[in-house]
Amino acid sequence: MTAKQLKTQNAGWYRFNVGALECTAIWDGYIHHGYEGLFPNADPAELARLKEAYRLPQGEFFPMDLIPVVVNTGDKLILIDAGMGRTSQLFGDTMGHTLDNMKASGINPDDIDVILMTHLHPDHSYGLIHPDGTPVYKNADLYVSDTDWEEWTDEASLSRTDFRKPWTEGTLAAVAPYRERVRLFKLGDDILPGITTLSVAGHSMGQCAFIFESQGEKVVFTGDVAHHHIFDPIHPEWFFHMDYDSDPQMGADAKSVIFAHVVDNNIRYHGYHFPYPGLGDLERAEDGTYRFHGEAVTPRLGYSPVTG
Question: Residue 210 belongs to a domain with what CATH number?
Answer without folding.
Answer: 3.60.15.10
